[in-house]
């Protein structure tokens, strides 16, 4: 353990983390558990398989040695296009332990985007699950950088190399400030940005949020519908459970109400991490199943979607193992919080994080929830809101959110135009518009570029969306600005319904009638200038791989 010297003082808030001169994160997250007697405890569980901490340590050593044997060396990058499975853990921590820099990326990317990241990162190799070969192989060919592809299938020989490699691997010398891994920001616009993170960044998120806010411990079993390839899922389903010696529950399938409920029932997690879109779809599935006495629910889109057939005959799922439900990715509408609590008895702890900060830095806490609020600043982080003049905003005044903390990236890779603009003196400009009230609760107003000025007054699309979602007919909503015939900007709502419209005969068309009803609903609950002037009914909303609504794609 000489390669992972860390002292944690939890007598104060935030907890104080003191590092030795050497700190390789892999030694702390993997090897430490053997020294502390957890070798036989389950580290990873998925349907039909378990991996103990002892097995994890051996396979991490083998994966690290296999990468070194393939010619990769300290500081080299290895791209990971890997599904949620134990091999993700093996290669991520094996690379970190060997001094190689793993770069997990979305397996939903097309070949063109992968080619860009392969070239931008300068990676020496791409490790990928065979399911994604149709995009990875042409991506490598398009990039033409000389990076090799390492398919995780028997025919490729990579798994044979891992199995033949020694499990004994000494952790490469590293300082807490050295780069351990990269992520690529998903973003809602623009090309992805490489976001390096240090060895010390993961412990900061785990101690300040996972332990300090959620109170996770060794007995917890963490299940994340959000996948490992981006920051939210990486913490939820890997670094958090490994930090406390708990169990990570994995499911490589696309998250739908059916698959998530099945995983919760069979593998019994104690902490569940989702996104608002998925919670909405799960609620719809619960309502339909209970109304039908075990009737039907349908597969939804990744991270959500509708729910109309597929859980037939099952009835309401057993969620009794859960003690925590967490949401991030998009702001959680207050009505969704209230409906989930009424249906399950569980609070959803909404929070905001980012790839640049690695995980959540403002959050609600168990027993301290304000519906419609993102919460308070997580101890260990600082937050400020700056108005249009760049002056710190007062209580109730809107402005752009900046944050600072021990887990924020030291800077972007290969993007000099962002230096001095997005990160200054450790302060990260999030691009989110917020209001902080006098009690320190933060209220999301939308992305800075999503704000709409109506009649000279700024309004938040999220407030309109939240009001729309209080209506029984609305599953999801996204609001953007649109010019009217006079060139003036007014709100336009794009709405996904809980049930398809049924056209009426000899009366006002159903779409017109529902539009009028929704407009009146907004006028009753919002300032008059904020109601949507147009409502478009759509089958789905455009989203990033992480479930964030891409409002720019709705603008006309």
Structural features:
556 residues; alpha/beta; Rossmann fold; GMP Synthetase, Chain A, domain 3; nine-stranded mixed β-sheet; five-stranded antiparallel β-sheet; 27 strands; 28% helix; 25% strand; globular
Structure, explained:
With 556 residues, this protein is α/β, with parallel strands linked by helices. Among the domains are: 4-244, Rossmann fold (3-Layer(aba) Sandwich); 451-554, 2-Layer Sandwich (GMP Synthetase, Chain A, domain 3). Helices cover 28% and strands 25% of the residues. The protein contains 13 helices and 27 strands. Strand 25 (474-483) and strand 26 (489-497) form a beta hairpin. Helix 1 packs across helix 3 and helix 7 packs across helix 8. It is globular and about 70 Å long.
How much strand content do the residues show? Answer: 15-25%
- What's the CATH C level of one domain? Alpha Beta
Helix content range of the residues, please? 25-40%
Unreliable runs, pLDDT <50, ≥5 residues? 294-313
CA distance, first residue to last residue: 57 Å
Instruction: Using the coordinates shown, work out and report the CATH topology of one domain.
Output: Rossmann fold
Largest sheet: 9 strands, mixed
* Helix segment tally: 13
- Overall mean pLDDT stands at 90
Lateral strand order in the biggest sheet: 4-3-12-11-13-14-15-16-17
Assign the CATH architecture of one domain: 3-Layer(aba) Sandwich
The rounded Rg comes to: 24 Å
The secondary-structure class comes to alpha/beta
What is the β-strand count? 27
Sum up the overall morphology in one term.
globular
Please describe the topology of this protein.
Blueprint: E1 4-9, E2 16-23, H1 25-35, E3 42-46, E4 49-52, H2 53-69, E5 77-81, H3 86-98, E6 101-104, H4 111-121, E7 125-128, H5 133-143, E8 148-151, H6 158-164, E9 179-184, E10 194-198, H7 201-211, E11 221-224, H8 231-244, E12 247-249, H9 257-267, E13 271-274, H10 276-291, E14 324-327, H11 334-344, E15 348-353, E16 360-363, E17 376-377, E18 381-386, E19 399-405, E20 423-424, E21 427-436, E22 442-447, E23 452-454, E24 457-459, H12 461-468, E25 474-483, E26 489-497, H13 510-525, E27 534-537
Parallel strand pairs: 3-12, 5-6, 5-7, 7-8, 11-12, 11-13, 13-14, 14-15, 26-27
Antiparallel strand pairs: 1-2, 3-4, 9-10, 15-16, 16-17, 18-19, 19-21, 20-21, 21-22, 23-24, 25-26
Helix pairs in contact: 1-2, 1-3, 2-3, 2-6, 4-5, 7-8, 10-11
């Amino acid at each position: 353990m000489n390669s992972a010297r860390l002292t944690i003082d939890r007598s104060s808030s935030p907890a104080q983390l003191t590092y030795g001169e050497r700190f390789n994160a892999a030694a702390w997250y993997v090897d430490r558990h053997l020294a502390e007697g957890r070798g036989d405890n389950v580290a990873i569980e998925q349907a039909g398989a378990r991996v103990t901490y002892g097995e994890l340590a051996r396979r991490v050593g083998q994966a690290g040695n296999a990468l070194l044997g393939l010619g990769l060396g300290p500081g080299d990058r290895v791209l990971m296009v890997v599904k949620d499975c134990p091999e993700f853990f093996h290669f991520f921590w094996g690379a970190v332990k060997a001094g190689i820099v793993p770069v997990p990326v979305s397996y939903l990317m097309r070949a063109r985007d992968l080619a860009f990241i392969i070239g931008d990162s300068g990676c020496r190799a791409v490790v990928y699950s065979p399911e994604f070969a149709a995009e990875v192989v042409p991506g490598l060919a398009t990039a033409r950088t000389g990076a090799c592809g390492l398919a995780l299938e028997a025919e490729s020989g990579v798994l044979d190399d891992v199995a033949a490699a020694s499990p004994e691997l000494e952790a490469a010398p590293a300082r807490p400030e050295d780069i351990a891994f990269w992520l690529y920001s998903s973003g809602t616009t623009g090309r992805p940005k490489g976001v390096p993170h240090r060895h010390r960044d993961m412990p900061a998120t785990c101690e300040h949020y996972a332990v300090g806010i959620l109170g996770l411990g060794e007995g917890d079993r963490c299940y994340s519908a959000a996948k490992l390839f981006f920051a939210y899922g990486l913490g939820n389903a890997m670094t958090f459970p490994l930090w406390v010696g708990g169990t990570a529950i994995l499911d490589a399938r696309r998250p739908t109400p059916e698959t998530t409920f099945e995983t919760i029932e069979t593998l019994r997690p104690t902490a569940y991490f989702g996104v608002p879109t998925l919670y909405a779809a799960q609620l719809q599935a619960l309502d339909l199943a209970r109304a039908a006495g075990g009737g039907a629910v349908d597969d939804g889109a990744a991270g959500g979607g509708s729910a109309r057939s597929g859980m037939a005959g099952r009835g309401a799922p057993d969620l009794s193992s859960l003690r925590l439900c967490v949401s991030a990715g998009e702001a959680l509408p207050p009505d969704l919080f209230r409906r989930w609590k009424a249906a399950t008895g569980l609070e959803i702890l909404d929070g905001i994080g980012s790839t640049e900060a690695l995980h959540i830095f403002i959050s609600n806490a168990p027993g301290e929830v304000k519906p419609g609020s993102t919460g308070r600043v997580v101890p260990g982080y600082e937050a400020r809101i700056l108005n249009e003049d760049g002056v710190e905003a007062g209580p109730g005044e809107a402005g752009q959110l900046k944050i600072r903390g021990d887990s924020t990236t030291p800077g972007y890779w290969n993007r000099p135009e962002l230096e001095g603009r997005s990160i200054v003196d450790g302060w990260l400009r999030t691009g989110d518009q917020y209001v902080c009230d006098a009690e320190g609760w933060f209220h999301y107003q939308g992305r800075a570029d999503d704000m709409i000025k109506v009649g000279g007054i700024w309004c938040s699309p999220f407030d309109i969306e939240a009001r729309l979602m209080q209506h029984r007919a609305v599953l999801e909503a996204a609001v953007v600005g649109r010019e009217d015939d006079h060139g003036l900007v007014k709100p336009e709502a794009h709405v996904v319904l809980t049930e398809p419209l049924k056209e009426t005969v000899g009366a006002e068309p159903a779409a017109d009638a529902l539009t009028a009803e929704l407009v009146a609903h907004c006028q009753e609950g919002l300032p008059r200038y904020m109601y949507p002037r147009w409502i478009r009914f759509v089958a789905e909303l455009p989203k990033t791989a992480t479930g964030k609504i891409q409002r720019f794609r709705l603008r006309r």
